[in-house]
TrEMBL record:
Keywords: DNA-binding, Transcription, Transcription regulation. The keyword DNA-binding applies. It comes from the Bacteria. The keyword Hydrolase does not apply. It comes from Candidatus Avipropionibacterium avicola. This is LacI family DNA-binding transcriptional regulator. InterPro entries: HTH_LacI, LacI/GalR-like_sensor, Lambda_DNA-bd_dom_sf, Peripla_BP_I. PROSITE patterns: HTH_LACI_2. GO terms for molecular function: DNA-binding transcription factor activity; transcription cis-regulatory region binding. The lineage of its organism: Bacteria, Bacillati, Actinomycetota, Actinomycetes, Propionibacteriales.
Length: 364
């Protein structure tokens, strides 16, 4: 064979071995187990391989033979761009990625919207060694479990999801957090409360309002249903803490500040305004505050406002909210995936009600 670099076809390890007059295993050792060869022989093999255009064993094929991809999937029920738009998601992902990076592992972001069978099929074939579910529905979790992939969820299963109650998770007690919010508002004298929720968690369209009776039926349905979404656990907690039959729910749209603004317009421009509004996320709450200030209203003085998460901008806005350890959730989720022996496997992190100026006593 010519001394010149081969160009007529893809060069293989076997070709290099043939030219060098050694076994294929010897060439493999030159790339993968250098301690098995003399320094001179390894240098000669690598030089010849480079001249022939052979870059070494295919990493993907090697991982496939080993049954590993060294990549971990993060599943979202939203579009992928949501992962970079939403402040909670970016903070969680940053902490998750830092742990993975330190271990030399890679990430694969997977968008699996509720009811999207094609996306669910893509999850079934994804080349990943494990799955972390930031926000997704039960079919995604079941798909990962059917593949026997290590799986960690960031919302505790509720309702009829008891068949997956043993799944690894890193969560806060969302029901208890919601109850803390409801009890706080009740102590301030609030009884007429609107709850802003993302429509991706219900069948309602944007701006749809459900009164107390219809809202009660919706809650009863979700109490019975299998779910991994934290939203309904929070809502149930809020209602339990308020102990009030006059709560209503408004679907705001996707979880964004703009959705909060639009939903705020719907709530504020109706004839009867509530005394308090609770949003299931800080970004919705901050959007609602934007809508208030556009109308010359001040949170706390005119309508009390509460959020969830305690994002950095919540303090600047004086927003009362539930503080949860977002980065810690991401870090621990990654550690559970990377270390099957790590215990405990089901972690409930603390939360805290942070009271700021946006909640004040209800007007008499």
């Amino acid at each position: 064979m010519s001394e010149e670099v081969e160009s007529m076809s893809k060069v293989t390890m076997k070709d290099v071995a043939s030219v060098m007059g050694v076994s294929v295993m010897t060439v493999s050792n030159a790339f993968n187990r250098p301690d098995q060869l003399s320094a001179r022989l390894r240098t000669d093999i690598l030089a010849r391989a480079e001249k022939m255009g052979y870059a070494g064993p295919d990493a993907a094929a090697r991982q496939l033979r080993a049954g590993r991809s060294n990549a971990y999937g993060v599943v979202f029920a939203e579009r992928l761009s949501y992962a970079f738009d939403d402040p909670f998601s970016t903070a969680w992902l940053a902490a998750f990625a830092q742990v993975m990076e330190a271990d030399g592992a890679n990430l694969l972001l997977l968008s699996v919207p509720v009811g999207d069978t094609d996306a669910l099929e893509a999850l079934r074939h994804a080349a990943v060694d494990g799955v972390a579910a930031m926000c997704c529905d039960l079919p995604s979790i079941r798909q990962a479990r059917q593949r026997r992939l290590p799986t960690v969820v960031c919302t505790k299963p509720s309702g009829a999801g008891s068949d997956l109650a043993d799944v690894d998770h890193v969560v806060i007690d969302d029901h208890a957090a919601g109850r803390d919010v409801g009890a706080h508002l009740r102590a301030l004298g609030h009884r007429d409360v609107v709850i802003l929720v993302e429509f991706s968690y219900s069948q309602d369209g944007e701006g749809v309002e459900r009164g107390p009776e219809a809202f009660g039926e919706l809650l009863a349905h979700h109490d019975r249903a299998a779910t991994y979404h934290d939203t309904w656990s929070r809502i149930r907690g809020i209602v339990d803490g308020l102990d009030s039959p006059t709560s209503t729910i408004v679907t705001a749209g996707v979880n964004s500040r703009e959705s909060g603004r639009r939903a705020g317009g719907h709530v504020l421009d109706r004839q009867h305004r509530p005394t308090a509004v609770v949003a299931v996320s800080d970004v919705l709450a901050l959007g609602f505050i934007d809508a208030m200030r556009h109308r010359g209203l001040e949170p706390g003085r005119d309508i009390s406002v509460v959020g969830f998460d305690d994002l950095p901008m919540a303090a600047d806005a004086g927003l009362t909210t539930i503080r949860q350890p977002i980065a810690e959730k991401g870090r621990l989720a990654a550690e559970l995936l990377l270390d099957p022996a790590r215990t405990p496997r089901q972690i409930v992190l603390p939360h805290e009600l942070v009271v700021r100026a946006s909640t004040q006593p209800a007007p008499h």
